[in-house]
Design brief:
It is globular, with a radius of gyration of 19 Å. The protein contains 13 helices and no strands. The chain is an all-alpha fold and about 240 residues long.
Length: about 240
């Protein structure tokens, strides 16, 4: 079934539309085999973040937005060195926080989001402990984090996948590009719609592997320009790749 199939012309935007799309994709795209082929090509990654403090991870993910991994790591380390506790972040002048995280970019915006997040967490919990998320069903945990201002689908998904090991699928630029080319998500859809679809079609226990290997694949072969489809381990399942063969 091609991307122009009538079954794929239903307008995305509601949960039922995501369910409809996921069901149609599952009929033609064997995601389990795609995962296996990527693992053969790139290995099976191990989640080294499981066990991190959940709020630490949430803040780290916010700091990682719109910057490189190296920059976000340095910025997080600088934040933790300057402020030994989250309470210290709230007590500090916002400009002090801005200057501390400036190397990661968007410092004013991120500082405001982080401080508001910390205020909300303390107000709801009386502390900065979000460890209860580990015991929640994945969908419930996503909905809970999404209730905090400034926490979108990707931020929530990364936090829960990395720190809690929950089956939640984050999407970044590389992953969006590949999923659209393969045909697992529509060419045009919202972030929320794409996350809902992928959370339905990725095999249990393979969320971290698929997420990491799609990023590796996007950097190495399925590049924005001149993708190396002739070397692609999943080209047989890819709508775009089949048009180039």
């Amino acid at each position: 079934m091609s991307a122009s199939s009538p079954r794929r012309k239903k307008t995305p935007g509601s949960e039922s539309a995501a369910e409809f799309w996921a069901a149609s994709v599952a009929d033609e795209k064997p995601v389990g085999y795609i995962v296996q082929n990527l693992e053969r090509a790139y290995g099976e990654p191990v989640n080294k973040w499981t066990g991190w403090d959940v709020l630490d991870m949430l803040v780290a993910v916010i700091l990682s937005q719109a910057t490189s991994d190296a920059n976000s790591d340095r910025t997080y380390d600088a934040l933790k060195k300057r402020f030994p506790t989250w309470d210290a972040v709230l007590r500090a002048r916002e400009q002090t926080l801005v200057e501390t995280i400036r190397p990661g970019g968007l410092a004013n915006q991120k500082a405001a989001v982080i401080r508001e997040l910390l205020r909300q967490v303390r107000e709801r919990h009386g502390s900065f402990d979000l460890s209860s998320l580990r015991a929640m069903p994945a969908a419930e945990a996503v909905a809970y984090l999404a209730g905090f201002r400034g926490v979108g689908p990707k931020t929530a998904a990364c936090t829960l996948l990395f720190a809690c090991g929950l089956d939640v699928f984050p999407l970044d630029t590389h992953i969006f590009r590949i999923l659209r080319r393969v045909g697992l998500i529509p060419a045009k859809c919202s972030d929320r719609f794409a996350h809902e679809v992928m959370n339905r079609v990725v095999p249990a226990g393979k969320f971290y592997s698929f997420h990491v290997n799609l990023i590796r694949h996007g950097r190495k072969l399925c590049r924005p320009r001149d993708p190396l489809c002739e070397r692609c381990p999943v080209v047989e399942y890819c709508d775009y790749g089949q048009t180039r063969s």
